[in-house]
Every structure is written in C-alpha cells, then in structure tokens.
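hiii, so i know i said id send this last week but things got crazy w the move. better late than never?? heres the sequnce for the chain we talked about at the cafe, plus the structure i predicted for it. fair warning i was half asleep when i ran it
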Amino acid sequence: MTLISHIPKTRENRDDSLIRLRDPVARSYLHLSGSGTTKDINYSWLGSRAQAKRLQAQAERRGQDWPFCKVHR
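okay and structure toks below
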C-alpha cells in the first residue's frame, strides 16, 4: 500500500479567499500577531475577510486607528 504524503495544490483545494491587511501609507502589513506592523510579508497576518472584520471591530472598540486595507495574498 502506498501513502501519499503530499497533495499538490490545485484550484479545487486552494483557498483563494485568504487576504492580508496592508497599510498603504506606511507600506507595511499587519503583523501575524494581530497587532503592530511588519514590512516582511512572511511575518504578516493572513486570514479570512470575516476575521479581518473582527480585528477591525476590536480596534475600533479600543479607539485605535485602522489604516489597513484588504489585499489578496
């Protein structure tokens, strides 16, 4: 019996709905921790649109500015 250890990414099993949040003025991304920013895309936040809305709502409740816009990964 042969086990497949890696399934290649195809259009059917790739999630294209993931986004990053980018500050266009500072030219930086939201850090993967959900707070702060980073210029390195490898350490940037990656999530769904619903998660991004929740992060924005939390920031607004705390009275923080939300300079980020949604960009496709």
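btw The helical segments are 49-61. thought thatd interest u
miss u guys!!
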